[in-house]
Amino acid sequence: MLLILKVVLCLVGFVWGRGRDKTLRFNSDRTFTILQITDIHYGEDDFKDFQTSQLVISLIRKAQPDLIVLTGDAVSGYAWNGDPGFFFNNWARFTSPFTITNTRYAYILGNHDGEADLTREQIFDLDSEHPLSLMDKADEITGVNYFHEVQSSYDNATAPPSILWFFDTNREGCRNETWSWGCVEDDQIAWFRKQSSLITASNKNTYDLAFFHIPLQEYMDLWYDGETYGEKNEDVACPRVNTGLFDVLAAQGNVKAVYVGHDHDNYFGGFWKGVELIFGRKTGFGGYGPAKGMLRGARVIKLTEYWDKDELKVKKNDWMLLEDMSIEDNTKSKSDKKAEKRQTECALPNRPISHFKLVIMLILGFVLLSLAVGFAYSRCKSRNSQQLKLGDI
């Protein structure tokens, strides 16, 4: 089945004429447009998957992006029923809008994608075969991480003006803390620092964006202590351990904005210590949310390159494109933050049960069941004895 799919995808790539070309470039009008979709959650319900596909196609046709960035949880791995081919079938479904519209995409893994019948490595092997996929993988570090340069449209440009970074926030657990959402681990941060330093050594003026699934702890700080747009409708579900990624991003200076997903009901953003932290808009019909009165949608990110004297620069504008095809700008948050109880800790996944606790619970359950059966048996025996005595009378 997989071999047949690879042949089909190869033919698709030949027909579209793009093959395996992964070069990104600003257009002749000096713009480059990204459509961020997130948390589409295929695999829970066929009709919801159909609705999501139709919505994604509409969003693409309206926004006309040069690149789609899918920031995780494309598939609800927890909905797997044990049958083989679960992820493959849903992958074929969620990539179909990209094929139909002939739009290249960069896929980042969320915490639920690898919970079914394919590991994260196997998902990479599968998706990287798609002729429209830009998924890549840096060697010998945790997860699936990569970056792509966006080349200039100017003939006299000597370096790419923008770089897109894609990080894997993994599933659950961070460093040695098991009860936590996943995070960008230390070896991933070291990889970014090294690669970023190599690039900025010869090109210090890149305007970079970072994309990943699970938000940083700093999103909490931004909401309560910064100026924000959009709204916070649920607690920020971030890693319990702060691995210092934000500090490295801020120190390196090239990443100007971070886009995440994961929290289906949040869509706020703002600047924190010089870096813009932004939630995407929940796109899919699967999974929980969105919050009451909140439409599904996507973020449209428009980069524009221009010359400022002898320096090539980039400016950014973004907005939300909603499921009714209306546009929602980044207007100031209306929530009364002072009246709101401050969130000081990340919202966490359900606490895992240790093997010891599980054994104890099973023993207690067995004991209680034995007592219940014994009690029922004694009651039944007592009633039978009474009936026999009444019969003798």
Could you walk me through the main structural features you see in this protein, from its secondary elements to its overall organization?
- The termini are far apart.
- This protein has 8 helices and 16 strands.
- The model is unreliable at 1-18 (pLDDT under 50).
- Helix content is 32%, strand content 21%.
- The strands form 3 sheets. It has an 8-stranded mixed beta sheet, with helices on one face. A 6-stranded mixed beta sheet has the order 4-3-2-14-15-16, covered by helices on one side. The chain has a two-stranded antiparallel ribbon with strand order 7-8.
- A hairpin with a 2-residue loop joins β12 and β13 (275-279).
- The longest helix is centred in the C-terminal third of the chain and has 38 residues, at 355-392.
- It has helices at 2-16, 46-63, 86-101, 120-127, 186-200, 218-225, 245-252, 355-392, and strands spanning 24-25, 31-37, 67-71, 105-108, 146-151, 162-166, 172-174, 177-181, 208-211, 228-229, 255-260, 269-272, 275-279, 297-308, 311-322, 327-328.
- The protein has 393 residues and is of the alpha/beta class.
Reconstruct the topology from this structure.
Layout: H1 2-16, E1 24-25, E2 31-37, H2 46-63, E3 67-71, H3 86-101, E4 105-108, H4 120-127, E5 146-151, E6 162-166, E7 172-174, E8 177-181, H5 186-200, E9 208-211, H6 218-225, E10 228-229, H7 245-252, E11 255-260, E12 269-272, E13 275-279, E14 297-308, E15 311-322, E16 327-328, H8 355-392
Parallel strand pairs: 1-5, 2-3, 3-4, 6-9, 9-11, 11-13
Antiparallel strand pairs: 2-14, 5-6, 7-8, 10-12, 12-13, 14-15, 15-16
